[in-house]
Amino acid sequence: MSNRCSVCDSSEVIFYRRYSGEVFCRKCFLENIIDRVRATISKYELLKPFDKIAVAVSGGKDSLSLLRILEKIERDFPRASLVAVTIDEGIPEYRDEAVENAVRYSRSLGVPHYVYSFRELFGFSLTEVVESNVADAVGLQPCTICGVLRRKALTIAARKLGATVIATAHTLDDIVQTYFLNILRGDTRFTPIGIRREAEDVIPRVAPFRLIPEREIVLYAYISGIPFQTHDCPYVERSMRDSVRLFLTEYEEKFPGSLFSALSSFEKVFARSIQEDKRCRRCNEPTSRELCRACEIQETILEKMKR
Length: 307
Hints:
Largest sheet: 5 strands, parallel
Shape: globular
Number of helices: 12
CATH topology: Rossmann fold
Structural class: alpha/beta
Distance between the termini: 64 Å
């Protein structure tokens, strides 16, 4: 490994990218991450010059990094605009801290920020569902309820705000983990994650970090002074994703570049199985079922809570 930056030849090296052999100083690393996001947006045609982008800002380091980078990139596109959207599931301390981080950081960037809660959108908070044992009664893990309904909530929020696209902070790690989880759950229907898919009356979702490993976003956030959460989600250990995350992180550590290979393989193999979406009979959003998963979960929980 060289002890000088691969870009500017500085001796103040802070990061060695094992899968590419590149070495970076602080300044060049920050610029490289932004350049790679630009390249990803261009490669997959994720954003358009006239988009109103609803950035999903949870308040964590990844989403705040995405907001910061998109704000920098969109300065070159005056016809585009950004709004930050935070979904409050209703998890005391954990989400309270995250919402506060999101509010403060959005304000510091001059980006309009909006908060929507599970309670106002669905009639209950995640904590109420878990602590009342409704989650166990309907046979769902907290992370499943949260993930499905957060996605639905973002769509509702984006519609209210007149957004043309939703940008999420899913990294390379997140996307490969999801593909593995889908296989382990027996889901043979493939839907590309984070790639813009246009359809009538549908707000597309994009993931500008889809080709950037999680650890590089963490470093970007740290040296950029982006706030980190001090509270962990109390339900994370009950998630199936946690085990898959651990396995893939260890595998990537032993075999650098494995996540890129996995992403490429998944999308080549499954590209032939992409099917046209149906529409949910209740909310009219794309789904492979008569009633989308979000509407099904919401109806089931509300019914249980009435009893």
